[in-house]
Amino acid sequence: MTPRLRAAARPAVAATIAGRLLRHAVPGPPKTTGLGQDTVRYIVDWAGPVDAGLPDERAVQAACGLMQVHGRATGGPLPLAVDYASVVAGLLAAQGVTALRIARARGLDLREVRTSVAQGALLAVGQYLAAETARANSGAPEPDVPVTPSDVPQADGLATLKTSDDARVEVETLDPLAWREFWARLGVAPALAGRGWLPFQQRFATAVCPLPDELRQAARRRTLAELRAAAHHTGVSLLTVGSDPAPAVRPAPWCLTPGPAPFPKARAHPETAVPGLRPAVPGAVLPLTGLRVVESTRRVQGPLAGHVLRMLGAEVVRIEPPGGDPMRWLPPLAGDCSARFSALNAGKPVVEADLTTAPGRDTVRALAAAADVFLHNWAPGKAARLGLDASDLLPGHPALVYAWASGFGDAFGDRPPLGTDYLAQVHSGLAAAVRPADQSPAPSLMTLTDVLGGLVCAQGVLAALAAREATGRSSRVDSSLVSAAALVPRPAHRARWTALDRPLRTADGHLCLGPEARACPEAVLRLLDGAGAMAAEDLAARFVRRTTEEWTARLAEAGLTATPVLTDLTALARDPAYRAAVAPPDPATGHARPYAPWEFA
């Protein structure tokens, strides 16, 4: 168990994000009823149910696995140079408050919600936790499937390419033929290009991309213009990675467009299947119990939005193609289902429908007609081509909330790049912000914007449901990966770190110094017996002489905080300190998972 250290200031970034999101939501706080103001309240702290002293963002990143996952591609655990877990916690707080408003409008007597930065971090690593614990729980790797060992750091495991004129670029494609043709135009043999395809695709799952060095060298021999030409001719998306951490655009987190007309403040006739306001289910303890969400989503952003709404009590029904979503069978498996897929989609009933056919589209229309929310993250233009856009569904279903989670919104007009996490990090400036100034800018291969994008989409849906309860109008909600990334505060210039700002290698692991020790190296120096003045790098090197536990105790005796860096995600399911925050693998799931990140009262 991590020793309990001295507490520190409340998480200010989380409170700022929550306040901004709540101000952006349409309805105000609940109206006055009876004596006094009928208020709802949220509480955000650092550790929540995690039984450990976590004094700041850096400690949470160390203890909950963010450093481990983010650092896989660069040789070892590394902090994100932004307050990522705090932003996630701010989103969770805003979701909790908005869900409370919906619940109270429906007759539930809920007034308070609690969450924490640690619970935000655990939610963010949930898919990686599921994959690692499923693999460990099975007793053996998946047979005959090459899997990058995700617990082994890779010194050069990023996907970012460098050109002969010193540009840094990020490429993206989901098409193996386009990938092969792109490299062929750069003079790479098909077999060699094929060796790079699997690690390139698996980077979404493993957070590391060990491309064959020959591919990096081939890119290094060409100019940026040549790479752009190859990408243009093959349909591969390519963006240059800049060094400016400022967002290229600052869109609103979500855009809510009211529907055609208010609906009656009562349930319509059951035979019409058109919902009005749904009263709370008697005895319900979750704010969205009794509401129904229909989602047609894939990968991470959309399924995570549905997962959040399900954890808040809604019934979430998935629409999948005939035979099921192909992501269900990606290794590692937990039983007969992908652990990563299960982490976001367990507990969602499935209706299979072929959207390329009229009967399949009719199935979607019928499901949406009986739902409170229809959610998708289809490619731009697909909804209109299918006749399933908001303009098609809302006029006949005036109680429906229609939500679209995209990659770039309207940032690139009608021909955006592929709307995937890493390109969104590049376009938003996050790729520069997440790394210190002495590292080249590059996206984190942890899916940062997918998680934020799913959370922002869910919050937009909650805001629309709250507006529906207050105004009697349906609405369309648009959000994107880029709008979510813009929430992350970042300095005007990239962070500059000393050796003490990074995890320190000890005799048996890594240790993250607390804010006091990082700010005052002299205080740490006094713990080194007889040592004179020395540079931060030399001071950091001395930590290898003692174990993590020994250093943690010595620092605590001196009034300094420090947090052991988690380097094995499976330990979260075994550590008693996380018993109230992480559910261990069970026969139903076969993998560990974070518990829902709110407590309502």
Summarize the structure in words.
By secondary structure, the protein is an alpha/beta fold. Strands 6-14-13-12-7-8-11 form a seven-stranded mixed sheet, with helices on both faces. Strands 1-2-20 form a three-stranded mixed sheet. A three-stranded antiparallel sheet has the order 3-4-5, with helices on both faces. The model is unreliable at 1-7, 27-37, 140-152 and 266-275 (pLDDT under 50). It is globular and about 75 Å long. The chain is built from 23 helices and 20 strands. Helix 1 (12-24) packs across helix 4 (84-105). The longest helix has 24 residues, at 448-471.
State the helicity in percent bands.
25-40%
Instruction: Give the mean pLDDT.
Output: 88
Q: Over all CA atoms, what is the radius of gyration?
A: 24 Å
Strand content: 5-15%
Secondary-structure topology with pairs:
Elements: H1 12-24, E1 41-45, H2 57-63, H3 66-71, H4 84-105, E2 112-116, H5 117-124, H6 126-138, E3 161-162, E4 168-172, H7 176-184, H8 190-206, H9 213-220, H10 224-234, E5 237-240, E6 254-262, E7 292-296, H11 301-311, E8 315-320, E9 333-334, E10 337-338, H12 339-345, E11 350-352, H13 358-369, E12 373-376, H14 382-386, H15 390-393, E13 401-406, H16 421-428, H17 430-433, H18 448-471, E14 473-480, H19 481-485, E15 504-505, E16 510-513, H20 515-519, H21 521-525, H22 536-541, H23 548-557, E17 562-564, E18 582-583, E19 593-594, E20 599-600
